[in-house]
Each structure stands twice: as structure tokens, then as C-alpha cells.
Amino acid sequence: KHSELVYKVYAGVMVIRRTLVHRKLRGQGVGQKLAKAALDYALLNGYFIVIECQFVRDYIHKYNPHYARYIIE
Q: Please, how many CA atoms are within 13 Å of residue 44, restricted to the half-sphere of its CB?
């Protein structure tokens, strides 16, 4: 059962591209854990964040708006 959050880091910016959660794991908070881990990693390393993934964008808006100050468009 494979789940992943795909991102790339360059020039001090983490670009979060997409989150994929195996269908049998959906609804169990796996996507939220992946999003939080990636966002925390970005902050710990001093990266700004670009979000291309709608799931992560929604996660921040709904559960952790404090990450929004690190997002660049």
C-alpha cells in the first residue's frame, strides 16, 4: 500500500507537487500526516513553500493556517 507526497527543493524553495494516498488508506489521516511532515521539514530547513497540490493547500487552510506565512506564489 503505497502513499507519497511528491516535492522538489531548489534555491531555498520547496515545491509540493502532489499527494497520493492508496485507496485502501484514504480517510485515515495518511495524507494529513504526509502534508504535515513535508511542511515541518520545509520550516526546519528554512525553505519557503510553493504549493501545487490542492490537497496540501486545503490541509493548510483547514487545519494549520500558520504555515501560510511561508507560502510564496
A: 6
C-alpha cell at 37: 511532515
Does the model's pTM come out above 0.85? yes
Per-residue pLDDT band at 3 (split at 50, 70, 90): very high
Give the Å distances, CA to CA, from 13 to 26, 41, 73.
28, 12, 11
DSSP letter string over 42-71? HHHTT-EEEE--HHHHHHHHHH-GGGGGGB
